[in-house]
Amino acid sequence: MSLLSVEDLRASFTTYGRTSEVLKGVSLAVPAARQVALVGESGSGKSVTMKAIMGLLPGAARIDAGRILFDGDDLLTMRERDRLRLRGTAMSMVFQDPMSSLNPVWTIADQLTTILKYADRRLGRDRDRKGRMARVLEVLAQVRMRDPERVAASYPVQLSGGMRQRVLIAMALLSEPRLLIADEPGTALDVTTQAQILKLLKDLVTERHLALLMITHNLGVVRETCSYTYVMHRGEIVEEGATGAIFADPQRDYTRELIAAVPRLTGRDAA
């Protein structure tokens, strides 16, 4: 049984009296300790799927049908209190934009210890501030921060883009989740730093035997991080398979277009 299973998920948005179906029977699975990608262009329904899984859909959205199973329990029929207990603990997110995800007037330590405090409360853990701070420094070291104490005492604006992205990864790992959902991590970074962040993310999930659902428009990112890929277009899964097989022999024109958009670093394109 997969750790996460989305089964025939249908969702719609109602705005200005008009209802539009945005998810049209989406099904996907993320086995435990596996890295899976959900790929598609902007507007394909990737983010709506991710928000439905995390319970973060806006008020204009409605789930019309389907199931979202986490470890066999349907998140859509679960009590809100129980679902909140899972979010940020058993399942966490790595957001794409650190500057909109981090509070500019709080230090990194203040932000991470506050998040950990609420997670501990949900899980019934008894950990004092000193213990929370020790955990924060431990996780900052795990995301390869050279000076965790200095980073913890810093404000977001004092850190580079790559360091801020590492902080978001640390934030997601604080409560030792079983599933990470990464939403376009490193998109705003330069190519070299993005490659470092993606390698770090892959190393961390592999070392901890975590499940990863990577949300991205970039098949080049997928090739480096995920073993299985779902291709999404206009609210539907149009192709799925082992990542290597999809690159070697894509079955749909849309998938071929996505692959063609991946920059190549050989031959004429390398000049």
Description:
The chain has 271 residues and is α/β, with parallel strands linked by helices. It has a single domain, classed as Rossmann fold. 39% of the residues lie in helices and 26% in strands. The chain has helices at 46-54, 80-86, 98-101, 108-123, 129-142, 148-152, 161-173, 191-207, 219-225, 243-248, 253-260, and strands spanning 4-15, 18-30, 35-39, 61-70, 73-74, 91-94, 179-183, 211-216, 228-233, 236-242. The chain has a six-stranded mixed β-sheet with strand order 6-7-8-3-9-10, with helices on both faces. A four-stranded antiparallel β-sheet has the order 2-1-4-5, covered by helices on one side. Helix 8 links the parallel strand 7 (179-183) and strand 8 (211-216). Helix 4 crosses helix 5 (129-142), helix 5 (129-142) crosses helix 7 (161-173) and helix 7 packs parallel to helix 8 (191-207). The longest helix is centred in the last third of the chain and has 17 residues, at 191-207.
Distance between the termini: 47 Å
Class in CATH?
Alpha Beta
Task: Characterize the main sheet.
Answer: 6 strands, mixed
Uncertain spans: 265-271
Number of domains: 1
Work out the helicity level.
Answer: 25-40%
Please count the beta strands (DSSP E, at least 2 residues each).
10
Q: Can you count the helices? A: 11
- Mean pLDDT level: 92
Going across the major beta sheet, what is the strand order?
Answer: 6-7-8-3-9-10
Provide the β-strand percentage band.
25-35%
Assign the CATH superfamily: P-loop containing nucleotide triphosphate hydrolases
Order of helices and strands: EEEHEEHEHHHHHEHEHEEHH
